[in-house]
Design a protein that fits this description.
It is a single chain. The chain has about 325 residues and is mainly β. It folds into 3 domains: about 15-75, no CATH class; about 85-185, Immunoglobulin-like (Sandwich), CATH 2.60.40.10; about 200-295, Immunoglobulins (Immunoglobulin-like, Sandwich). About 0% of the residues lie in helices and about 35% in strands. It has no helices and 21 strands. It has a 4-stranded antiparallel β-sheet, with no helix packed on it. The radius of gyration is 40 Å and the shape is elongated.
C-alpha cells in the first residue's frame, strides 16, 4: 500500500471477502496466509483513505503477489498554524527555550502527528523556510490546546536566533509557518555565588537540646534575587565545617534581605555548640561560610522542689517595736 508519492501507508486493513484479513506494517506491505483454493476479492480499508482499485479479484492457486493498491487520503484539513510561539534565552550554554500551544490534527481539533522546528539568524518566512536548519528534539504533538515547549541547543552563545514551526498530520497535511520570534542563545552560565550570611545568631531554646537560629537571607547573585538552598551545620566549639553535623530540612531561602529562622535540636542539652551556614544558587555556586554563632543548648526543666526543713529551733526572743512579740529562730535542711 502506498500513496500517490509512493510513500507506504501503514495500518491498512486488507480482506479477502471478509474471511481472512491482514494489516499493513510500517513498510506498507501485507500478507494474507491460510488461503485455500478459490477465487477471492481483495479490498482495502483505512479511515481517512480511499483506495484504487477499489478491489482486486485473485485466483488461488498459484500464490498471488503484487496485489498492490494506491491510497488517497480523504483528509484535506491541515493542522492550524501556531500563532503563539515564544522564545527565551535558555538556562544552559548555547540554548534557547521555545514554548507554544499545540494545534490539532484538523485545524484546532484532535492531535497532530509531527512538528518541524527550524531556526535562522533572520526571521523565518516562506522565502527561507527550506534553507533554515531543522532543530532536533521536537516533542510529539499533544492534544489541541496543550502547552508545549522544547529547548534548542548547539547554538552560538550570545547570537540571536529566530524560530518557526510547521505542524503535520498523518497524511501529511502541513500547516502554515508559525510566527517567528527571536531570542539570544545563553552566552554564559551564572558564576556569581550568593553573598555570605554575616548576621547568623544563636540563642538557647526552650526545649531540651534546642538552639534557636536566625539570619537574613542572601540573594542568588550576591545580595539580589533568591538563592536555592542552605547547608547549615553545627559542631562543638571551636567550629569545624568539615567535621560538623549537617542539619536536616533547613528552610528554603527567602528573597534577599528577608528574615529567616529555625530551631535545631542537638544531641547534648546544656552544652555550647557552634553553628555556620553556606548558601547555594540554582547553578551550584556556593557562598563562603557565614559568621559562626554559638549558644548553649536548652536544658530539661527543673521539676525538683527544694528539700523540706529538717530542724527548726526557735526562741521567744524579745519584744519588737510597739511591744509585739518577736520570734528568733534558725533551721537546717
Amino acid at each position: 500500500m502506498a500513496d500517490g508519492s509512493d510513500s507506504p501507508i501503514p495500518g491498512v486493513n486488507v480482506s479477502d471477502d471478509g474471511a481472512l484479513t491482514a494489516t499493513t506494517g510500517g513498510d506498507g506491505v501485507y500478507t494474507i496466509t491460510g488461503v485455500i483454493t478459490g477465487t477471492y476479492t481483495i479490498t482495502s480499508t483505512k479511515s481517512g483513505y480511499t483506495f484504487l482499485p477499489t478491489s482486486r479479484t485473485v485466483p488461488v492457486p498459484p500464490d498471488a503477489s503484487g496485489q498492490d493498491f494506491i491510497g488517497m487520503s480523504t483528509d484535506a484539513t491541515p493542522p492550524a498554524t501556531i500563532t503563539n510561539l515564544s522564545a527565551s534565552t535558555g538556562s544552559a550554554l548555547g540554548t534557547v527555550d521555545l514554548s507554544w500551544t499545540a494545534p490539532g490534527d484538523d485545524g484546532n481539533s484532535g492531535t497532530a502527528s509531527t512538528y518541524v522546528v527550524r531556526y535562522n539568524i533572520t526571521p523565518i518566512s516562506d522565502a527561507n523556510w527550506n534553507s533554515s536548519p531543522t532543530a532536533s528534539g521536537a516533542p510529539a504533538p499533544a492534544p489541541a490546546g496543550t502547552p508545549q515547549g522544547m529547548p534548542v541547543g548547539g547554538l552560538t552563545p550570545g547570537q540571536t536566533y529566530h524560530f518557526a514551526i510547521k505542524t503535520q498530520d498523518e497524511v501529511p497535511n502541513t500547516s502554515g509557518i508559525s510566527n517567528s520570534p527571536g531570542a539570544s542563545a545563553r552566552a554564559d552560565r551564572d558564576v556569581t555565588p550568593p553573598a555570605a550570611i554575616n548576621n547568623l545568631s544563636a540563642s538557647t531554646g526552650a526545649g531540651t537540646g534546642q538552639v534557636n537560629l536566625s539570619w537574613s537571607a542572601p540573594g542568588d547573585d550576591g545580595s539580589s534575587g533568591t538563592a536555592d538552598e542552605y547547608d547549615l551545620r553545627y559542631s562543638p566549639c571551636p567550629f569545624d565545617w568539615h567535621r560538623a553535623t549537617q542539619v536536616d530540612n533547613p528552610p528554603s531561602p527567602g528573597s534577599a534581605g528577608s528574615a529567616q529562622s529555625m530551631s535545631v535540636h542537638v544531641p547534648f542539652p546544656g552544652q555550647i555548640y557552634c553553628f555556620g551556614v553556606k548558601t547555594a544558587d540554582d547553578e551550584g555556586n556556593w557562598s563562603s561560610l557565614s559568621n559562626v554563632a554559638q549558644a548553649r543548648s536548652g536544658e530539661p526543666a527543673d521539676t525538683t522542689p527544694p528539700g523540706p526543713i529538717s530542724r527548726f529551733h526557735g526562741d521567744a526572743g524579745h519584744k519588737g517595736r510597739g511591744g509585739a512579740a518577736q520570734l528568733d529562730g534558725a533551721w537546717r535542711r
